[in-house]
Design brief:
413 residues, alpha/beta, Rossmann fold, globular
């Protein structure tokens, strides 16, 4: 009885939060306009030859206080094949007042969804997504307010054809690093290959930022990476397979399976699903974040597999063990300083995951600082942590671009 009441209260609170967010979004950003050019997201076939990060095409976009340009650029998937990825390059109207050239921060978006309509480059321009897009806009604005240019990626398969490879380490790292290259090569922006760069992200974006930080030395060594902000990163998928299952945010577990199935088709993940599981796969791949949360909250994955085992039960057997290991973040040393941040009572991604990521990097000799993201409620602490994260990221990167030394705290967290 007590558990039923508690679940009902949480649903009511969540519904209230969502409703308030929807109203705020409509009031703040107005009605969504029609897609300015639906054909922009269709890549040429065959893809043009070129270097990773080369711009394929552009489309003028809109964002308050900045010159905004949508870009399609070359990147690479987890199998190292050339792919098209879209995103947005934003240059603030305000002049850069810091030292040297205006820096570029790669903004790695948090979970927007799996459907192409959810692509952050669309929602930043007011053309799609749900009220979660207001948080994306707020994070971008916090970076622009510091005078940074922002290079935002949509990741693989979000907007462009194909499946979004949600939380796939190499694919997301490549997309983040290549959008920085695209921004440096985009004409008419005042940016160049000499522009220093940083990375910032939260949740899915925290994982993408972390992945980019540790793959940058090998994948994009020419980038002058000054630092990476890593907020609430889903660094260990094995832990999340257990912690998300049956909870309010189990939809994100479904997203992970769809993303991994797209990146590793040889694993035949969908073959493990029963009819209900296959139906969830088909539905979830078309949803944005809130739709997935509402549709699938409190579902148990054991109800969706042919043999009645939960998803976590498969992870000790191949090929799933190898896939989970390949997507574990923290196995390589970032060359640049990193700030790892996590709310201690995060209700989506346990803070122990973020802390372990920091410790893993410390053990490799990286310059790491771990700190708690302020949180005032255990309910929705992950979502509400975004507000604190965006300010922390902007301030910390300001110090890195100013040349101030980054004080790590390895061994003290």
């Amino acid at each position: 009885m007590h558990n039923t009441f508690r679940s009902s209260r949480r649903r009511a609170l969540f519904s209230g939060l969502v409703t308030a967010g929807l109203v705020a979004t409509l009031l703040s950003f107005g009605a969504a306009s029609a897609d300015a050019d639906p054909g922009f997201y269709d890549p040429p076939s065959p893809l043009p030859r070129g270097a990773d990060g080369d711009v394929i095409k552009t489309l003028p976009s809109t964002f308050s206080g900045a010159k905004s340009t949508r870009v399609m650029y070359l990147s690479r998937d987890a199998a190292n094949r050339a792919i098209p990825v879209t995103g947005t390059v934003l240059v603030p109207d305000k002049a850069w007042s810091g030292p040297g050239q205006r820096p570029i921060v790669a903004y790695a978006p948090f979970t927007a969804g799996m459907g192409d309509q959810c692509a952050p480059s669309k929602s930043l321009a007011g053309e799609g997504g749900d009220f979660v897009s207001s948080f994306q806009k707020s994070f971008v604005s916090a970076l622009l307010d510091k005078g940074f240019a922002v290079a935002q990626t949509d990741y693989e398969g979000l907007g462009t054809p194909g499946e979004h490879t949600y939380v796939v380490r190499e694919s997301e790292a490549h997309a983040v690093l290549d959008v920085l290259r695209a921004a440096q090569r985009l004409s008419g922006t005042g940016l160049s290959s000499a522009s220093p760069v940083g990375v910032a992200g939260y949740s899915e974006g925290g994982g993408a930022s972390a992945s980019a930080a540790e793959l940058a030395p090998s994948y994009a060594p020419e980038l002058d990476l000054k630092g990476a902000y890593v907020g609430a990163a889903p660094a260990d998928k094995a832990v999340l397979a257990k912690s998300l299952d049956g909870g309010m945010y189990v939809g994100f577990l479904g997203y992970s399976l769809i993303g991994l199935n797209a990146a590793y088709p040889e694993a035949k993940i969908l073959d493990l699903a029963n009819d209900a599981g296959k139906q969830l796969f088909e539905e979830a791949r078309k949803t944005c974040t809130l739709d997935a949360v509402f549709k699938y909250m409190y579902r148990n994955s054991a109800q969706l597999t042919k043999d009645g085992r939960p998803v976590s039960a498969y992870l000790d057997q191949e090929p799933f063990r190898g896939i989970v290991a390949a997507n574990r973040i923290g196995t390589l040393k970032p060359a640049a300083p990193v700030l790892v941040a996590h709310a201690p009572n995060d209700d989506v991604i346990p803070s122990s995951i973020g802390k372990q990521l920091g410790k893993d990097w410390c053990a490799k000799g990286a310059n790491v600082r771990f700190q708690d993201i302020p949180s005032f409620s255990p309910l929705f602490s992950h979502v509400l942590g975004i507000s604190g994260a965006q300010g922390e990221a902007a301030n910390w990167l300001t110090e890195r671009f100013a040349g101030k030394p980054a004080a790590g705290n390895c061994g003290r967290f």
